[in-house]
What does this fold into?
Amino acid sequence: MHWLKNRLVKWSILLLFCFVILISLAWVFIPSIVSTDLVKQRFELVISETIGQKVTFNTEPKITLWPNAKISLGAVTVGKTEISTEESLLIADSVSADMSLFSALFGEPSFSNYKLVRPTVQLEIYPDGTSNWLPTSNILGGLLNSNVSTQTTNLIVSASTEGPFDSNLFDFQNLEIEGGTVLLITDPGNEPEKISSINGRITRSSFTNTLTTNFEAIVRGEKINLNIVDLDTVNLIHGEVVDTNITLKSDLVNFSYNGEIQAGSKVFLKGELALNTPSVRRAIEWSGSEIKPGAALGAVDLQADVSGTLTGAKFEDLIVKIGDNRGIGILDYSLEDDGPPVLSGTLAFNTLDIESFLRAFTPLPKSSDDIANTIDTRFLKQLGLDLRLSAQSAKFGPVEMSNLAAAVKVNREDATFNVGDATAYGGQLIGKISISDKGIDGGGEISISVRAVDFDEFFTTLELEGPLPRGTGDLDLKLTSERPLWATDVANIRGGLSITLNDGSVPGVNLDQIKQLASEKKFFGLNDAANGSLSFDMAELDVDIDGGIASIQQAIIMSGDEQIILNGIIPFAKGSFALQGSVSPIASQSGQTSSESPKPTDNVFLFFIGGSWPNPIVSPSVPAVKFR
It folds into this structure.
């Protein structure tokens, strides 16, 4: 038995030695047996038919056998066409692929697992949606010319059914790209857009003929990762509906789509869409859109069922979060050739910050000091809106509301925010803000109407100081301008204000103390008589605003059996005011109405009040002067 074991060991060593010799001989002689010219021609043919363009290699093929048979060629050029005669469509340092050794020995080499090293692609998109990568009767040309007519699509289908399209189109199982660059041209007058550092892989399933891609690249300074799963490119190019999953990830924007897609004269989508970004302003700037976003707009998170085309789509079962505003509803998107994109629909919120929401679509100033130099009216022509909003609770700055029903409209000439109904401080509120680049003819208006509102709580919320009348009542305000309200100053604003209050008081005003001080001093500060408050049964204020001056046409306070009448001016720009007033019995004198300044009598107290708010100066016994 010992001799048999030794004999087996010897034979095993001999067989192993022979195998090594055979491998060595194959390593040396097979590359010379295989026709490199035939392999090169076949390689050029397969790639040319796949991309639909003439391919040339400026080096001889290099064939290696370890660890597997592979062919590699350098200085790759995709030839010029009648459409693109100035630049090669593609150049690359090298292209390589796995090669079937047995098929090569029989004169019909086949290839798989392609790798393209440092390719540079010239891609020009024409106004009709086609590109310089023609013809369309191949995988790459078809994908890069998706916006083709029905007639062209039929030609593609006809060409593909004749054989060449399907026979060699999917010879590759995998395509790897290393260090690629795409020079994208959409406007011949501008520099091409450069997409660099492209690395990734395209994999084809031999069972389903679907493609899966995973690429990373740098686009406008942002690193992105694009992943497409199970895309049936053959049926897609034929204009049929196919299912796919598309995901784009980056630090700036994340996007996913899972559903149906159809290419043709218009790309059709029907599926689930999700989009989120930490900064819409940065995302819009990165995308190259001409839309001017609000500088304060931050994070947006959107999920919806989408159906439609790239020029018109419906977003149903929509969940959108704009900043801290989370709403649900339905939106329609449309894009016309001669107009900006338009969003219309209905959104319902639990809570809504109106100011931050409006900043999402209009570049409103951050403060009143910035009004004249931060507004850019170009946004009116860049985005259209027709949105109906509702919210259980809402706020505009410090003002809080509930049960809000509102609308936002933006067209090419003006933007309007309209509050149809809201509950605020125990009463009802309606209002409208209309801004325009055409002045008053295009809107240029702010109007607010409130009914049965608690002005004590309202003034406290606004942190307004000084002896202001507080009670429950109504307010109407209307302001207009000959220029856009955001690009004007107080001197250009005109309008009016009226307030009616019932059963209230004026804090910090003691009328008996004022009368006492008036009998002792020629002038004194109103805060010297601030011990107490002035109760009133009714207060009315009627103000005209024009040229930066508020003219008090009528201000009446009915307090017990006395009435206080004020008139005068308040120059906004100076931060001061000048009023004349009187205190008299409510019973009218003969021939005199209660709203007229009474004549001096023993029962009438006349005074002047003016200076800086909220600490004005009072001077008694000033003859009546009619302010205009």
In short: DSSP finds twelve helices and 31 strands in the chain. The longest helix spans residues 2-33. Residues 8 and 220 are 68 Å apart (CA to CA).
